[in-house]
Design goal:
Layout (H helix, E strand, L loop, with lengths): L1 H14 L7 E2 L18 E2 L3 E8 L10 H17 L2 E9 L2 E8 L4 H20 L11 E5 L1 H13 L13 H9 L6 H4 L12 H4 L7 H16 L14 E2 L2 H12 L2 H4 L14 H12 L3 H4 L7 H13 L4 H7 L5 H17 L1 H18 L4
Parallel strand pairs: 6-7
Antiparallel strand pairs: 1-2, 3-5, 3-6, 4-5
Helix pairs in contact: 2-3, 11-13, 11-16, 13-15, 13-16, 14-15, 15-16
């Protein structure tokens, strides 16, 4: 299975359009999976915002009890951290889920593949089943956050009161249901329930005056307004091309995924949320900080904490694929790098000092990089 994942990863890398983080996935080049209909473009770049949804196979339930929902959120939080993804909204429905998120790297496909596989395995194990859990691939719409993040967050949070069950329901009935819905991030926005530590509430509330009582009340009014008057689904504008945005945003994206290879080196990538450090500089700084010898820490066959931490930092700050990190770490393959990151995650869950060490190293490396980036 690992070898199959590695082959798939190499194919995606082969089809990517540039090395600066702007990608089109195979669906964008006319490649269809078994049983797939033609799909809109899957556009990936650092700092991209998306609405993502995934539905159960044959519309069957993907959550059978509260234990499933808790496990889903635990695995989601873990995947968000591993792949450096910021989450703004989540809604869990019986047979599908919605996420609104931002990828700090151009890695939505990697993130969703990892997360969906993890939850499928957990669900199958808990319920003694085998086989597919989801109906095909996830659906993702790229969002022009400046113009549509607020609207998409509202549309997503209102999902629990759509459908036949709520046809004819009053505004108050719908509002009461939303306020009693624990399978959504909405209550955290209104501070009516404990907040999830893996949700970024401040970014959306920033459009309403900030994460304050005033901002939260304004967001509540914004949500309720749509209950009182029907509004169009903002995702409808993405039909055909997968982009929730105006003509200017679509042109901006199209320009950056369609320009020629020789031109790409001269055009700066989209400004990232995090640092982007040259791999050789990061390794040099890491060794200077830790006192490790480069040939020792990068030698194949070692699985020390120091080596695992270096691999994690290379992933976070160097915009490298797993295969490229493997080459720097003694020529190991993508599957080995992925496994090592899972090993580090497991060790950090048991040892808080390792988490502190990673964050201290990251802070020092970023500080040293500021003068060069």
């Amino acid at each position: 299975m690992r070898f199959a994942f590695w082959i798939a990863k190499r194919e995606v890398e082969r089809l990517s359009l540039n090395s600066a983080g702007w990608h089109r996935t195979p669906a964008q080049d006319g490649v269809r999976g078994e049983g797939d209909m033609a799909r809109p473009l899957r556009i990936q770049y650092p700092g991209a915002y998306y609405h993502v949804t995934c539905r159960g196979h044959e519309r069957r339930e993907i959550f059978r009890d509260d234990g499933d929902r808790r496990k889903f959120l635990v695995l989601l939080a873990r995947s968000l951290e591993i792949y450096c993804v910021a989450l703004f909204v989540y809604v869990l429905m019986p047979n599908h889920f919605h996420l609104v998120l931002r990828t700090l790297k151009a890695n939505l496909s990697e993130f969703m593949r990892h997360f969906n596989i993890c939850y499928t395995m957990a669900f199958n194990w808990a319920h003694g089943r085998v086989g597919h859990l989801y109906q095909g691939r996830y659906k993702a719409f790229l969002i022009d956050a400046d113009s549509y993040l607020m609207e998409v967050s509202r549309y997503t949070h209102l999902n629990p009161v759509r459908g036949e069950k709520f046809k004819g329901a009053t505004v108050d009935e719908k509002w009461r249901h939303l306020l009693g819905c624990r399978e959504s991030s909405l209550l955290g926005y209104l501070e009516l329930a404990p907040r999830q530590p893996f949700v970024d509430y401040g970014s959306v509330l920033g459009y309403f005056g900030g994460d304050s009582l005033r901002g939260r009340r304004a967001y509540a009014r914004f949500i309720r307004e749509r209950l009182e008057e029907d509004g169009r689904n903002p995702l409808e504008m993405a039909r055909g091309h997968g982009i929730v945005g105006g003509e200017a945003f679509i042109a901006w994206v199209t320009e950056r995924i369609c320009f020629k290879e020789e031109d790409r080196r001269e055009q700066p990538a989209v400004r990232k949320l995090g640092m982007n450090v040259a791999p050789e500089d990061l390794i040099e700084r890491y060794c200077a900080i830790t006192g490790e010898r480069q040939d020792a820490v990068c030698r194949r066959g070692r699985r020390t904490d120091s080596r695992l931490l270096l691999q994690e930092l290379l992933y976070r700050y160097c915009d490298l694929t797993g295969t490229e990190i493997g080459m720097l770490m003694g020529g190991v393959d993508y599957a080995t790098v992925s496994h090592c990151r899972a090993v580090l995650r497991s060790r950090m869950e048991k040892d808080g000092r390792l988490v502190e060490k990673l964050e201290e190293l990251a802070a020092q490396i970023v500080e040293k990089a500021k003068g060069k980036i």
